[in-house]
């Protein structure tokens, strides 16, 4: 890494702080995104130096899988473990109660499966992701099976959202998730009760998972640039 | 239909009673199963005789689609209609509050999408499907994405169920649904609060849909054999 | 359409020429892409004016389906027709023998299913798509099931190609097709025998379909700008 | 294994003979089916006894994965190996040239991906699977994406076959494969040129893979009962 701009230096600092929380003899959920990518790199460094031993990763996405191989983190699957000790993953919005919106990369279903199983779910973000109310700046992603697209969009509008289908780039038609489904991005002006909305949307027939992660995150590591220097604080 | 045994005569009677409820100029959800198959046949008969006009069907399954074509019922999709007037479908268990367990044919996700949209959801069953408590005689089917199989089975066991993966016949390994997912059949001794359990299971990460249909059914047509004669009653 | 630049005027002219070839009482395969989109618009116009009657479309993609509904072209499916009279679709490369490379939009599997069934397959392109040898300017897209990604990439390299996985935008990890598969884009310096390469790649275990369309196209409509004017010629 | 009938004793003998061919420090493709299941059990035994070391398996199916875990065979994936040394798998028909029909369990796509990569592909069958001409006793399975079902069935009929859609048991509608596709079973009276037919069918738009394995098998282990005793011969 020759030169990094301030934003990347900050992501790197947060990733390093997260990697420092990983202990030997643990199973680690490996998240998706650019800050998490730094965390994976630093976990790999610590394994190489012998600072860490016997760490096994469970990837939340194809990206995490590729990076884990690159950085020498052994992988396993949910079928052979009975717990996840810590998961490290990013978020698109974080509210003061540590509730999240995720799904900008359309990977939130697999992420929620892994993150929700972790004893400790460590979220890595920059300060721009902190919001007072979820839904203020980011659309809520909802994964839906293709057949249910139209009725689910109508149901989401009835819940007060402005839904739109996420369209593909370098692919005609809509984005398709790793499960073969579509993603509806929903504008809510502000989400009053995230716990209730999460359950209500997941109960819509044809919805697989939505991007609300309520009561899942345990620790938030926030990167900021203060006086031109990258800093990391926890809340 | 040359000769039919008593059970089939009863299914036929229920199917006919359901077909008689369909009106002209309506959009009809077409369910799955042997009793519903008779309903589709009788709807086709009424269209041919001119008793019914301008009826369009929305199939819940491949089976319904094939039968609709066979019996001359024009088809459309959820993307082009703004309502469903009536849906006709079977069930594996029906409780006194008209709550259902469905999913013996692994088609409950598509069925719930269609049935839940219908202005009137008409359930056609024989009297053997009536139970005091859901879960008494039938396992609860839960559709889950493959990656989440093991954690969802553990979560279902924590909810008090005895889960087992539904295995295939004429297919190595498990049954795969029309969406590419797996089915876990869960034994609950009796389901105390179906509405709560439906939401709780749908909120498990990786679960697409479960076989509980709570507050969806409007009319139940029940076939019985009384004094050797097929009869149909409504509740 | 208020103002159109020269490129769009040319696409519009080609789309119009294609729409003019459609006859009443036919089943029409509806392709994907910006030039084809104009063809669909003009077919819709001709239906509205009454110039055309009883035209039914079979979409090759989600995009075609949405546009057909917008322009009032009734749709059907491959399960209910016994032929396709004409298909209109774009291409990424066209050689002098009317062989094509398609798949820039990752829709080539569904496009080949429809286009190959058509009595007449009409290709609409601008002159920039004409090449002497396939593979000169465009990568060859190969759709592969996820499990076979690595061995298929190796097999394609052995065939002389430089394969790379097509990555997603607005989606973490790779592009996923409408069938839930991945796309490998392969650089071949020039494809000596397209017919043989098409079969060889389709015979690789795990490959669903590749972007070579050999012996499928019947008519090529080519748009060009000559003296600042959009023109259309056939070859 | 308390008591086994003659057929199972024979399968067990063939499975043991196959397991005896596995060497230390190899990557082994793990097939599907009842005879292969015995091979996996005996590989596990040899690993436990220390007769074999450093054997890693690549499963062809969910069944193989579950059995490998049960018998203590470590697993890996195609993404992290650069070769497969030996694959052990069953077959539904074997001709004198060691060409096969597979796919009775709808797993032939994943099986072909693994088996075709193996340095040595070892087929385990009982003598009832030996035929003079492929297609004599077993239908040829063809995996097809749902959208292409009808045109592919027509194309198969034009090739001289009698195609039928494989229907599900404990699942309404057709069998769905692990890739989310359908299976067409095709009756050919006898297949004159398996190599040509394999390529021709794989080149049909919408076909993923068919059950013909031509030039893939290296060694056939055949179980027979002679004078009431299970015997194994190689050809």
Automatic annotation (TrEMBL), chains A, B, C, D:
Under Enzyme Commission nomenclature, its number is: 5.3.1.6
* Domain of life, per lineage: Bacteria
Signal peptide from the UniProt entry: none
Q: Which InterPro entries match?
A: NagB/RpiA_transferase-like (IPR037171), Ribose5P_isomerase_typA_subgr (IPR020672), Ribose5P_isomerase_type_A (IPR004788)
Q: Quote the pathway field.
A: Carbohydrate degradation; pentose phosphate pathway; D-ribose 5-phosphate from D-ribulose 5-phosphate (non-oxidative stage): step 1/1
Against Pfam families, the record matches this protein to: Rib_5-P_isom_A
- Kind of enzyme, top EC level? isomerase
Q: Where does substrate bind?
A: 32-35, 89-92, 102-105, 129
Q: Which UniProt keywords apply?
A: Isomerase
The keyword Cytoplasm is assigned to this record: no
GO terms for MF: ribose-5-phosphate isomerase activity
State the HAMAP family in the record: Rib_5P_isom_A
Could you tell me which NCBIfam families the record lists for this protein? Answer: PRK00702.1, rpiA
Record family assignment: Belongs to the ribose 5-phosphate isomerase family.
Q: What quaternary structure, including any partners, is listed in this protein's UniProt entry?
A: Homodimer.
Purpose: Catalyzes the reversible conversion of ribose-5-phosphate to ribulose 5-phosphate.
Name of the protein described by the UniProt record: Ribose-5-phosphate isomerase A
